[in-house]
Design brief:
By secondary structure, the chain is of the alpha/beta class. The chain has three domains: about 1-20 and about 145-235, 3-Layer(bba) Sandwich (Glucose Oxidase, domain 1); about 35-140, PtsI, HPr-binding domain (Enzyme I, Chain A, domain 2), CATH 1.10.274; about 250-535, Alpha-Beta Barrel (TIM Barrel). The protein is about 45% helix and about 15% strand. The chain contains 20 helices and 16 strands. It has helices at about 35-65, 65-80, 85-95, 100-115, 120-140, 165-170, 190-195, 230-255, 280-285, 295-300, 310-320, 360-365, 365-380, 395-415, 430-435, 435-440, 450-460, 475-490, 510-515, 530-535, and strands spanning about 1-5, 5-10, 15-20, 155-160, 175-180, 200, 215-220, 225-230, 270-275, 290-295, 330, 385-390, 425-430, 445-450, 495-500, 520-525. The protein has an eight-stranded mixed sheet with strand order 1-8-7-3-4-5-6-2. Bound molecules: phosphoenolpyruvate and magnesium ion. Phosphoenolpyruvate binds near residues 334, 450, 452, 453 and 501. Magnesium ion binds near residues 390, 429, 450, 452 and 453. It catalyses: L-histidyl-[protein] + phosphoenolpyruvate = N(pros)-phospho-L-histidyl-[protein] + pyruvate.
Length: about 550
Amino acid sequence: MQTYRGKSVFGGVAVGKICVYQKGEQTVKRTKIENAEQEKARFNAAVQESIRQLGELYEKAVKEVGEANAAIFEIHQIMLEDEDYLDAVQNIIDTQKVNAEYAVAVTGDNFAQMFAAMEDEYMRGRAADVKDISERIVRVLSGGAGQGIHTDEPVIILADDLAPSETVQLEKDKVLSFVTVHGSVNSHTAILARTMSIPALIGTDVALDETVDGKFAVVDGTNGVLYVEPDEETLETMRRRQREEQEKKELLQTLKGRETVTLDGKKIRLYANIGNSKDLASVIHNDAAGIGLFRSEFLYLEKETFPTEEEQFQVYKQVAETMAGKPVIIRTLDIGADKQCDYFELKKEENPAMGCRAIRICLTRPEIFKTQLRALFRASAYGNLQIMYPMITSVWEVEAIAKIVEEVKTELTAQNLQFGDPKQGIMIETPAAVMVSRELAKKVDFFSIGTNDLTQYTLAVDRQNPELDAFYDPHHPAVLAMIRMVVENAHAEGIWAGICGELGADLSLTKEFLKMGVDELSVSPGRVLPIRKVIVESSCS
Ligand code: PEP
Ligand code: MG
Protein backbone atom coordinates (compact mmCIF):
# COMPACT_ATOMS: atom_id res chain seq x y z
CA MET A 1 0.00 0.00 0.00
CA GLN A 2 1.27 3.49 -0.83
CA THR A 3 -0.08 6.41 1.16
CA TYR A 4 -0.10 10.02 -0.06
CA ARG A 5 -1.30 13.03 1.89
CA GLY A 6 -3.11 16.03 0.46
CA LYS A 7 -5.38 18.85 1.54
CA SER A 8 -9.05 18.06 1.68
CA VAL A 9 -11.34 20.08 -0.54
CA PHE A 10 -14.36 17.91 -0.02
CA GLY A 11 -14.93 14.96 2.31
CA GLY A 12 -16.22 11.48 1.66
CA VAL A 13 -14.65 8.26 0.49
CA ALA A 14 -14.06 7.08 -3.06
CA VAL A 15 -12.92 3.58 -4.03
CA GLY A 16 -11.86 2.72 -7.56
CA LYS A 17 -9.21 2.81 -10.24
CA ILE A 18 -6.93 5.79 -10.77
CA CYS A 19 -6.91 7.51 -14.12
CA VAL A 20 -4.01 9.93 -14.58
CA TYR A 21 -5.34 12.94 -16.43
CA GLN A 22 -2.85 14.27 -18.93
CA LYS A 23 -3.72 17.76 -19.97
CA GLY A 24 -2.61 17.19 -23.54
CA GLU A 25 -0.74 20.44 -23.22
CA GLN A 26 0.05 21.94 -26.52
CA THR A 27 3.56 22.89 -27.40
CA VAL A 28 3.19 26.22 -29.08
CA LYS A 29 5.72 26.93 -31.78
CA ARG A 30 6.80 30.43 -32.73
CA THR A 31 6.51 30.93 -36.47
CA LYS A 32 6.95 34.03 -38.58
CA ILE A 33 3.94 35.24 -40.54
CA GLU A 34 3.62 37.54 -43.52
CA ASN A 35 0.20 39.04 -43.03
CA ALA A 36 -0.45 40.44 -39.55
CA GLU A 37 -4.00 41.54 -40.42
CA GLN A 38 -4.92 38.04 -41.52
CA GLU A 39 -3.38 36.56 -38.36
CA LYS A 40 -5.31 39.02 -36.14
CA ALA A 41 -8.52 38.08 -37.94
CA ARG A 42 -7.75 34.40 -37.21
CA PHE A 43 -7.18 35.34 -33.58
CA ASN A 44 -10.45 37.28 -33.37
CA ALA A 45 -12.38 34.37 -34.85
CA ALA A 46 -10.82 32.03 -32.27
CA VAL A 47 -11.84 34.40 -29.48
CA GLN A 48 -15.43 34.36 -30.73
CA GLU A 49 -15.42 30.57 -30.93
CA SER A 50 -14.00 30.38 -27.40
CA ILE A 51 -16.75 32.68 -26.13
CA ARG A 52 -19.30 30.41 -27.79
CA GLN A 53 -17.77 27.29 -26.18
CA LEU A 54 -17.82 28.99 -22.79
CA GLY A 55 -21.50 29.80 -23.27
CA GLU A 56 -22.15 26.09 -23.75
CA LEU A 57 -20.11 25.23 -20.70
CA TYR A 58 -22.02 27.82 -18.70
CA GLU A 59 -25.34 26.24 -19.65
CA LYS A 60 -24.04 22.80 -18.70
CA ALA A 61 -22.66 24.04 -15.40
CA VAL A 62 -25.89 25.88 -14.48
CA LYS A 63 -27.74 22.59 -14.74
CA GLU A 64 -25.15 20.63 -12.82
CA VAL A 65 -23.84 22.94 -10.14
CA GLY A 66 -26.12 25.96 -10.10
CA GLU A 67 -25.89 29.51 -11.34
CA ALA A 68 -23.51 30.86 -8.73
CA ASN A 69 -20.88 28.24 -9.47
CA ALA A 70 -21.39 28.41 -13.20
CA ALA A 71 -20.59 32.11 -13.09
CA ILE A 72 -16.89 31.35 -13.60
CA PHE A 73 -17.58 30.65 -17.28
CA GLU A 74 -19.27 34.00 -17.66
CA ILE A 75 -16.21 35.53 -16.02
CA HIS A 76 -14.04 33.74 -18.57
CA GLN A 77 -16.21 35.15 -21.34
CA ILE A 78 -15.72 38.63 -19.90
CA MET A 79 -11.97 38.06 -19.62
CA LEU A 80 -11.97 37.20 -23.31
CA GLU A 81 -13.38 40.63 -24.02
CA ASP A 82 -10.78 42.39 -21.91
CA GLU A 83 -9.20 45.16 -23.99
CA ASP A 84 -5.81 44.89 -22.30
CA TYR A 85 -5.60 41.17 -22.99
CA LEU A 86 -6.78 41.47 -26.62
CA ASP A 87 -4.51 44.47 -27.30
CA ALA A 88 -1.53 42.63 -25.84
CA VAL A 89 -2.01 39.67 -28.20
CA GLN A 90 -2.57 41.85 -31.25
CA ASN A 91 0.42 43.96 -30.37
CA ILE A 92 2.69 40.90 -30.31
CA ILE A 93 1.32 39.77 -33.69
CA ASP A 94 1.86 43.27 -35.11
CA THR A 95 5.29 44.01 -33.74
CA GLN A 96 6.89 40.57 -33.84
CA LYS A 97 5.08 39.29 -36.95
CA VAL A 98 4.43 35.95 -35.24
CA ASN A 99 1.61 33.40 -35.29
CA ALA A 100 -1.48 33.97 -33.13
CA GLU A 101 -0.91 30.78 -31.09
CA TYR A 102 2.45 32.05 -29.92
CA ALA A 103 1.12 35.57 -29.18
CA VAL A 104 -1.72 34.13 -27.11
CA ALA A 105 0.54 31.75 -25.18
CA VAL A 106 3.00 34.54 -24.33
CA THR A 107 0.22 36.94 -23.31
CA GLY A 108 -1.42 34.23 -21.20
CA ASP A 109 1.87 33.59 -19.37
CA ASN A 110 2.51 37.31 -18.83
CA PHE A 111 -0.97 37.99 -17.47
CA ALA A 112 -0.87 34.88 -15.28
CA GLN A 113 2.46 35.97 -13.80
CA MET A 114 1.06 39.45 -13.17
CA PHE A 115 -1.97 38.02 -11.31
CA ALA A 116 0.16 35.53 -9.39
CA ALA A 117 2.29 38.39 -8.03
CA MET A 118 -0.68 40.34 -6.66
CA GLU A 119 -1.22 40.81 -2.92
CA ASP A 120 -4.91 40.03 -3.03
CA GLU A 121 -5.56 36.31 -2.65
CA TYR A 122 -8.61 36.41 -4.90
CA MET A 123 -6.63 38.09 -7.70
CA ARG A 124 -3.81 35.57 -7.32
CA GLY A 125 -6.40 32.87 -7.88
CA ARG A 126 -7.25 34.45 -11.25
CA ALA A 127 -3.84 33.45 -12.67
CA ALA A 128 -5.24 29.98 -13.35
CA ASP A 129 -8.24 31.51 -15.13
CA VAL A 130 -6.18 33.58 -17.53
CA LYS A 131 -4.09 30.52 -18.40
CA ASP A 132 -7.26 28.55 -18.88
CA ILE A 133 -8.74 31.01 -21.38
CA SER A 134 -5.43 31.31 -23.24
CA GLU A 135 -5.14 27.54 -23.57
CA ARG A 136 -8.69 27.45 -24.90
CA ILE A 137 -7.91 29.98 -27.64
CA VAL A 138 -4.72 28.14 -28.59
CA ARG A 139 -6.71 24.90 -28.83
CA VAL A 140 -9.26 26.55 -31.10
CA LEU A 141 -6.51 28.12 -33.23
CA SER A 142 -4.80 24.79 -33.72
CA GLY A 143 -8.07 22.96 -34.34
CA GLY A 144 -7.58 20.87 -31.19
CA ALA A 145 -10.39 18.77 -29.81
CA GLY A 146 -11.85 19.36 -26.38
CA GLN A 147 -10.26 17.46 -23.54
CA GLY A 148 -12.00 15.05 -21.28
CA ILE A 149 -11.82 11.73 -19.63
CA HIS A 150 -12.31 8.79 -21.88
CA THR A 151 -13.21 5.87 -19.72
CA ASP A 152 -16.02 3.36 -19.47
CA GLU A 153 -15.90 2.87 -15.73
CA PRO A 154 -15.96 5.55 -13.01
CA VAL A 155 -12.43 6.51 -11.95
CA ILE A 156 -10.43 8.56 -9.48
CA ILE A 157 -8.98 11.39 -11.53
CA LEU A 158 -5.39 12.19 -10.71
CA ALA A 159 -4.08 15.40 -12.25
CA ASP A 160 -1.40 18.02 -11.85
CA ASP A 161 -4.12 20.66 -11.54
CA LEU A 162 -7.58 21.07 -12.95
CA ALA A 163 -8.91 24.27 -14.45
CA PRO A 164 -12.58 25.05 -13.75
CA SER A 165 -13.45 24.25 -17.34
CA GLU A 166 -11.83 20.85 -16.98
CA THR A 167 -13.61 20.09 -13.73
CA VAL A 168 -17.01 20.88 -15.10
CA GLN A 169 -16.41 18.91 -18.28
CA LEU A 170 -15.81 15.75 -16.34
CA GLU A 171 -18.75 13.46 -16.79
CA LYS A 172 -19.96 13.26 -13.22
CA ASP A 173 -20.98 9.64 -13.37
CA LYS A 174 -17.49 8.77 -14.57
CA VAL A 175 -15.71 10.55 -11.74
CA LEU A 176 -15.45 9.11 -8.25
CA SER A 177 -13.06 11.72 -6.94
CA PHE A 178 -10.31 14.00 -8.01
CA VAL A 179 -6.86 14.37 -6.60
CA THR A 180 -4.47 17.07 -7.74
CA VAL A 181 -0.82 17.81 -7.11
CA HIS A 182 -1.36 21.58 -7.25
CA GLY A 183 -4.35 23.89 -6.85
CA SER A 184 -5.70 26.11 -4.10
CA VAL A 185 -8.52 25.61 -1.63
CA ASN A 186 -10.00 28.94 -2.70
CA SER A 187 -9.95 28.26 -6.40
CA HIS A 188 -13.16 27.96 -8.33
CA THR A 189 -12.23 24.38 -9.04
CA ALA A 190 -12.33 23.65 -5.33
CA ILE A 191 -15.66 25.44 -5.02
CA LEU A 192 -17.07 23.46 -7.91
CA ALA A 193 -15.79 20.23 -6.39
CA ARG A 194 -17.58 20.97 -3.16
CA THR A 195 -20.75 21.72 -5.01
CA MET A 196 -20.42 18.53 -7.02
CA SER A 197 -20.04 16.73 -3.68
CA ILE A 198 -17.21 14.46 -4.74
CA PRO A 199 -14.27 13.67 -2.44
CA ALA A 200 -11.38 15.84 -3.55
CA LEU A 201 -7.79 16.49 -2.52
CA ILE A 202 -5.32 19.13 -3.61
CA GLY A 203 -1.62 19.56 -2.89
CA THR A 204 -1.08 15.80 -3.02
CA ASP A 205 2.53 14.79 -3.39
CA VAL A 206 2.16 11.98 -5.90
CA ALA A 207 3.89 11.27 -9.20
CA LEU A 208 1.55 11.28 -12.20
CA ASP A 209 2.95 8.20 -13.87
CA GLU A 210 2.53 4.47 -14.36
CA THR A 211 3.37 3.77 -10.70
CA VAL A 212 -0.19 4.83 -9.91
CA ASP A 213 -2.06 5.01 -13.23
CA GLY A 214 -4.71 2.31 -13.49
CA LYS A 215 -4.09 1.11 -9.94
CA PHE A 216 -6.84 0.41 -7.45
CA ALA A 217 -7.05 3.14 -4.79
CA VAL A 218 -9.05 4.78 -2.05
CA VAL A 219 -9.47 8.52 -1.51
CA ASP A 220 -10.27 9.56 2.03
CA GLY A 221 -11.50 13.07 1.28
CA THR A 222 -12.21 13.84 4.91
CA ASN A 223 -8.71 13.16 6.17
CA GLY A 224 -6.90 14.12 2.98
CA VAL A 225 -5.33 10.74 2.19
CA LEU A 226 -4.90 8.76 -1.03
CA TYR A 227 -4.22 5.05 -0.54
CA VAL A 228 -2.90 3.29 -3.63
CA GLU A 229 -3.40 -0.48 -3.55
CA PRO A 230 -4.81 -0.33 -0.01
CA ASP A 231 -4.41 -3.28 2.33
CA GLU A 232 -7.44 -5.29 3.42
CA GLU A 233 -7.89 -3.52 6.73
CA THR A 234 -7.76 -0.02 5.23
CA LEU A 235 -10.10 -1.03 2.45
CA GLU A 236 -12.62 -2.45 4.89
CA THR A 237 -12.52 0.64 7.14
CA MET A 238 -12.93 2.89 4.15
CA ARG A 239 -15.79 0.89 2.71
CA ARG A 240 -17.59 1.14 6.04
CA ARG A 241 -17.04 4.89 6.08
CA GLN A 242 -18.28 5.04 2.52
CA ARG A 243 -21.52 3.29 3.48
CA GLU A 244 -22.01 5.76 6.31
CA GLU A 245 -21.36 8.66 3.96
CA GLN A 246 -23.86 7.21 1.52
CA GLU A 247 -26.53 7.05 4.20
CA LYS A 248 -25.82 10.67 5.04
CA LYS A 249 -26.10 11.65 1.40
CA GLU A 250 -29.46 9.99 1.05
CA LEU A 251 -30.62 11.90 4.08
CA LEU A 252 -29.43 15.13 2.49
CA GLN A 253 -31.56 14.58 -0.55
CA THR A 254 -34.83 14.24 1.30
CA LEU A 255 -34.29 16.90 3.91
CA LYS A 256 -32.72 19.74 2.01
CA GLY A 257 -34.94 22.76 1.65
CA ARG A 258 -37.38 21.55 4.28
CA GLU A 259 -38.34 23.73 7.20
CA THR A 260 -37.28 22.52 10.61
CA VAL A 261 -40.70 22.31 12.21
CA THR A 262 -41.86 19.79 14.80
CA LEU A 263 -44.99 17.69 14.28
CA ASP A 264 -46.86 20.04 16.62
CA GLY A 265 -45.78 23.08 14.64
CA LYS A 266 -42.87 24.63 16.53
CA LYS A 267 -40.23 26.06 14.25
CA ILE A 268 -36.74 25.30 15.51
CA ARG A 269 -33.79 27.48 14.60
CA LEU A 270 -31.35 24.92 13.23
CA TYR A 271 -28.05 26.71 12.75
CA ALA A 272 -24.44 25.77 12.12
CA ASN A 273 -21.20 26.37 14.04
CA ILE A 274 -18.21 27.66 12.12
CA GLY A 275 -14.61 28.60 12.85
CA ASN A 276 -13.93 30.75 9.81
CA SER A 277 -15.44 31.99 6.59
CA LYS A 278 -14.12 28.95 4.71
CA ASP A 279 -16.74 26.87 6.49
CA LEU A 280 -19.52 28.82 4.80
CA ALA A 281 -19.74 26.47 1.82
CA SER A 282 -20.50 23.63 4.16
CA VAL A 283 -23.15 25.67 5.98
CA ILE A 284 -24.91 26.36 2.71
CA HIS A 285 -24.40 22.84 1.42
CA ASN A 286 -26.02 21.42 4.54
CA ASP A 287 -28.89 23.89 4.37
CA ALA A 288 -28.48 25.43 7.83
CA ALA A 289 -30.94 28.25 8.52
CA GLY A 290 -28.17 30.43 9.90
CA ILE A 291 -24.92 30.46 11.82
CA GLY A 292 -25.45 30.01 15.53
CA LEU A 293 -21.81 30.23 16.58
CA PHE A 294 -18.96 31.78 14.66
CA ARG A 295 -15.94 31.19 16.89
CA SER A 296 -14.25 34.49 16.06
CA GLU A 297 -11.18 33.68 18.13
CA PHE A 298 -9.90 31.61 15.21
CA LEU A 299 -9.28 34.89 13.42
CA TYR A 300 -6.93 35.76 16.24
CA LEU A 301 -5.38 32.31 16.53
CA GLU A 302 -4.44 32.25 12.84
CA LYS A 303 -2.38 35.42 13.20
CA GLU A 304 0.92 36.51 14.67
CA THR A 305 -0.51 39.77 15.90
CA PHE A 306 -3.93 41.32 16.57
CA PRO A 307 -6.17 41.29 13.49
CA THR A 308 -7.00 44.86 12.58
CA GLU A 309 -10.51 46.31 12.63
CA GLU A 310 -10.51 46.35 8.83
CA GLU A 311 -9.41 42.72 8.53
CA GLN A 312 -12.13 41.64 10.91
CA PHE A 313 -14.72 43.87 9.28
CA GLN A 314 -14.06 42.26 5.87
CA VAL A 315 -14.49 38.74 7.24
CA TYR A 316 -17.67 39.50 9.22
CA LYS A 317 -19.15 41.42 6.30
CA GLN A 318 -18.40 38.57 3.90
CA VAL A 319 -20.09 36.05 6.19
CA ALA A 320 -23.12 38.28 6.75
CA GLU A 321 -23.49 38.98 3.03
CA THR A 322 -23.04 35.35 2.02
CA MET A 323 -25.72 34.26 4.44
CA ALA A 324 -28.03 36.78 2.75
CA GLY A 325 -30.32 37.81 5.58
CA LYS A 326 -30.09 34.59 7.58
CA PRO A 327 -28.87 35.07 11.15
CA VAL A 328 -25.10 35.05 11.67
CA ILE A 329 -24.24 34.95 15.37
CA ILE A 330 -20.64 35.94 15.91
CA ARG A 331 -19.15 35.25 19.29
CA THR A 332 -16.62 37.77 20.49
CA LEU A 333 -13.14 36.42 21.09
CA ASP A 334 -12.96 33.45 23.44
CA ILE A 335 -9.18 33.46 23.89
CA GLY A 336 -7.67 31.89 27.00
CA ALA A 337 -7.87 28.43 28.59
CA ASP A 338 -7.14 25.96 25.77
CA LYS A 339 -7.04 28.72 23.11
CA GLN A 340 -3.78 30.46 23.81
CA CYS A 341 -2.47 33.24 21.64
CA ASP A 342 1.10 34.38 22.36
CA TYR A 343 0.73 38.00 21.35
CA PHE A 344 -2.03 38.51 23.95
CA GLU A 345 0.82 38.00 26.44
CA LEU A 346 -1.49 36.46 29.01
CA LYS A 347 0.16 35.71 32.34
CA LYS A 348 0.87 32.09 33.08
CA GLU A 349 -1.96 30.82 35.26
CA GLU A 350 -2.30 27.87 37.58
CA ASN A 351 -5.81 27.28 36.38
CA PRO A 352 -6.30 28.81 32.92
CA ALA A 353 -9.84 27.44 32.43
CA MET A 354 -10.82 29.51 35.44
CA GLY A 355 -8.51 32.35 34.62
CA CYS A 356 -8.40 35.37 32.40
CA ARG A 357 -10.30 34.21 29.35
CA ALA A 358 -12.98 35.38 26.93
CA ILE A 359 -15.09 38.25 28.26
CA ARG A 360 -12.69 38.69 31.17
CA ILE A 361 -9.96 39.69 28.72
CA CYS A 362 -12.37 41.96 26.87
CA LEU A 363 -13.50 43.78 29.98
CA THR A 364 -9.98 44.23 31.36
CA ARG A 365 -8.44 45.19 28.01
CA PRO A 366 -11.21 47.23 26.39
CA GLU A 367 -8.99 48.45 23.54
CA ILE A 368 -8.88 44.88 22.16
CA PHE A 369 -12.62 44.46 22.72
CA LYS A 370 -13.49 47.77 21.10
CA THR A 371 -11.61 46.95 17.91
CA GLN A 372 -13.65 43.80 17.54
CA LEU A 373 -16.93 45.51 18.44
CA ARG A 374 -16.29 48.27 15.91
CA ALA A 375 -15.72 45.67 13.19
CA LEU A 376 -18.83 43.75 14.23
CA PHE A 377 -21.09 46.79 14.42
CA ARG A 378 -19.89 48.07 11.07
CA ALA A 379 -20.38 44.65 9.44
CA SER A 380 -23.87 44.40 10.94
CA ALA A 381 -25.01 46.94 8.36
CA TYR A 382 -24.54 44.23 5.70
CA GLY A 383 -26.77 41.43 6.89
CA ASN A 384 -28.45 39.80 9.86
CA LEU A 385 -25.36 39.81 12.03
CA GLN A 386 -25.82 39.24 15.78
CA ILE A 387 -23.25 39.40 18.56
CA MET A 388 -22.76 36.91 21.38
CA TYR A 389 -20.58 37.29 24.46
CA PRO A 390 -18.88 34.22 26.00
CA MET A 391 -18.12 33.14 29.58
CA ILE A 392 -20.61 35.38 31.32
CA THR A 393 -21.09 34.81 35.05
CA SER A 394 -22.71 38.04 36.31
CA VAL A 395 -25.21 40.73 35.48
CA TRP A 396 -22.60 43.44 36.00
CA GLU A 397 -20.54 42.02 33.14
CA VAL A 398 -23.45 42.43 30.76
CA GLU A 399 -23.92 46.00 32.00
CA ALA A 400 -20.22 46.71 31.51
CA ILE A 401 -20.42 45.31 27.96
CA ALA A 402 -23.43 47.53 27.23
CA LYS A 403 -21.45 50.57 28.34
CA ILE A 404 -18.54 49.77 26.06
CA VAL A 405 -20.97 49.08 23.22
CA GLU A 406 -22.47 52.56 23.72
CA GLU A 407 -19.00 54.11 23.56
CA VAL A 408 -18.27 52.23 20.34
CA LYS A 409 -21.53 53.39 18.78
CA THR A 410 -20.82 56.99 19.79
CA GLU A 411 -17.36 56.79 18.23
CA LEU A 412 -18.64 55.26 15.01
CA THR A 413 -21.33 57.93 14.76
CA ALA A 414 -18.78 60.69 15.33
CA GLN A 415 -16.64 59.21 12.57
CA ASN A 416 -19.62 58.99 10.24
CA LEU A 417 -19.18 55.25 9.89
CA GLN A 418 -22.23 53.22 9.00
CA PHE A 419 -23.36 50.51 11.44
CA GLY A 420 -26.45 48.37 12.09
CA ASP A 421 -28.47 47.50 15.15
CA PRO A 422 -27.41 43.90 15.85
CA LYS A 423 -29.18 41.72 18.36
CA GLN A 424 -26.91 40.86 21.29
CA GLY A 425 -26.97 37.69 23.31
CA ILE A 426 -24.79 35.79 25.71
CA MET A 427 -23.47 32.32 26.14
CA ILE A 428 -24.63 30.45 29.18
CA GLU A 429 -21.70 28.24 30.01
CA THR A 430 -21.10 28.75 33.71
CA PRO A 431 -23.31 27.53 36.56
CA ALA A 432 -23.38 31.11 37.86
CA ALA A 433 -24.96 32.34 34.63
CA VAL A 434 -27.53 29.56 34.88
CA MET A 435 -28.46 30.58 38.40
CA VAL A 436 -28.90 34.25 37.50
CA SER A 437 -30.34 33.56 34.06
CA ARG A 438 -33.68 35.18 34.87
CA GLU A 439 -31.90 38.48 35.59
CA LEU A 440 -29.58 38.09 32.62
CA ALA A 441 -32.55 37.45 30.33
CA LYS A 442 -33.83 40.95 31.06
CA LYS A 443 -30.65 42.43 29.58
CA VAL A 444 -30.08 40.50 26.36
CA ASP A 445 -31.82 39.32 23.19
CA PHE A 446 -31.01 35.60 23.39
CA PHE A 447 -29.18 32.84 25.24
CA SER A 448 -26.98 30.19 23.73
CA ILE A 449 -25.93 27.40 26.06
CA GLY A 450 -22.31 26.34 25.77
CA THR A 451 -22.60 22.80 27.05
CA ASN A 452 -18.90 22.05 26.56
CA ASP A 453 -17.88 24.51 29.23
CA LEU A 454 -21.09 24.21 31.21
CA THR A 455 -20.34 20.51 31.68
CA GLN A 456 -16.75 21.15 32.76
CA TYR A 457 -17.70 23.88 35.24
CA THR A 458 -20.75 22.07 36.60
CA LEU A 459 -18.99 18.76 37.10
CA ALA A 460 -15.60 20.28 37.97
CA VAL A 461 -13.99 18.16 35.25
CA ASP A 462 -11.33 19.62 32.96
CA ARG A 463 -12.68 19.15 29.44
CA GLN A 464 -9.11 18.98 28.09
CA ASN A 465 -8.01 16.11 30.28
CA PRO A 466 -8.45 12.78 28.43
CA GLU A 467 -7.81 10.89 31.68
CA LEU A 468 -11.11 12.24 32.97
CA ASP A 469 -13.23 11.26 29.99
CA ALA A 470 -15.28 8.88 32.11
CA PHE A 471 -16.15 11.74 34.46
CA TYR A 472 -16.95 14.28 31.76
CA ASP A 473 -20.60 13.47 31.30
CA PRO A 474 -22.71 16.09 29.51
CA HIS A 475 -25.74 13.83 30.06
CA HIS A 476 -25.36 14.31 33.81
CA PRO A 477 -28.76 15.21 35.36
CA ALA A 478 -27.21 18.38 36.75
CA VAL A 479 -26.31 19.61 33.28
CA LEU A 480 -29.72 18.72 31.86
CA ALA A 481 -31.47 20.43 34.78
CA MET A 482 -29.45 23.55 34.10
CA ILE A 483 -30.44 23.57 30.44
CA ARG A 484 -34.09 23.27 31.47
CA MET A 485 -33.76 26.12 33.94
CA VAL A 486 -32.10 28.42 31.40
CA VAL A 487 -34.82 27.81 28.82
CA GLU A 488 -37.58 28.48 31.37
CA ASN A 489 -35.98 31.72 32.49
CA ALA A 490 -35.39 32.84 28.94
CA HIS A 491 -39.03 32.25 28.03
CA ALA A 492 -40.23 33.96 31.20
CA GLU A 493 -38.52 37.10 29.93
CA GLY A 494 -39.60 36.63 26.32
CA ILE A 495 -36.28 35.71 24.71
CA TRP A 496 -35.16 32.55 22.94
CA ALA A 497 -32.64 30.00 24.20
CA GLY A 498 -30.55 27.57 22.22
CA ILE A 499 -27.62 25.20 22.56
CA CYS A 500 -24.37 25.67 20.63
CA GLY A 501 -22.17 23.22 22.56
CA GLU A 502 -21.50 19.75 21.18
CA LEU A 503 -24.41 18.34 23.16
CA GLY A 504 -26.78 20.19 20.82
CA ALA A 505 -25.84 17.67 18.12
CA ASP A 506 -26.49 14.65 20.31
CA LEU A 507 -29.35 12.90 18.53
CA SER A 508 -30.20 10.86 21.60
CA LEU A 509 -31.20 14.10 23.35
CA THR A 510 -32.93 15.98 20.54
CA LYS A 511 -36.43 14.95 21.62
CA GLU A 512 -35.66 15.85 25.22
CA PHE A 513 -34.42 19.29 24.19
CA LEU A 514 -37.63 19.86 22.26
CA LYS A 515 -39.65 18.93 25.35
CA MET A 516 -37.60 21.36 27.41
CA GLY A 517 -38.60 24.08 24.95
CA VAL A 518 -35.15 24.65 23.43
CA ASP A 519 -35.65 27.07 20.53
CA GLU A 520 -32.37 26.73 18.71
CA LEU A 521 -29.69 24.11 18.06
CA SER A 522 -26.41 25.16 16.52
CA VAL A 523 -24.23 22.27 15.41
CA SER A 524 -21.40 21.47 13.03
CA PRO A 525 -22.67 21.78 9.45
CA GLY A 526 -22.62 18.05 8.77
CA ARG A 527 -24.99 17.44 11.68
CA VAL A 528 -27.72 19.81 10.50
CA LEU A 529 -29.68 17.39 8.35
CA PRO A 530 -29.60 14.38 10.69
CA ILE A 531 -30.99 16.64 13.42
CA ARG A 532 -33.61 18.09 11.10
CA LYS A 533 -34.78 14.53 10.48
CA VAL A 534 -35.38 13.91 14.18
CA ILE A 535 -37.06 17.28 14.72
CA VAL A 536 -39.54 16.95 11.87
CA GLU A 537 -40.50 13.53 13.23
CA SER A 538 -40.96 14.71 16.85
CA SER A 539 -43.29 16.78 18.99
CA CYS A 540 -42.46 19.24 21.73
CA SER A 541 -45.04 17.87 24.12
C1 PEP B 1 -19.13 25.60 24.73
O1 PEP B 1 -18.43 25.85 25.70
O2 PEP B 1 -20.04 24.76 24.72
C2 PEP B 1 -18.90 26.33 23.47
C3 PEP B 1 -19.73 26.23 22.45
O3 PEP B 1 -17.78 27.07 23.37
P1 PEP B 1 -16.31 26.47 23.13
O4 PEP B 1 -16.45 25.01 22.88
O5 PEP B 1 -15.75 27.20 21.97
O6 PEP B 1 -15.65 26.79 24.43
MG1 MG C 1 -17.20 27.62 25.74
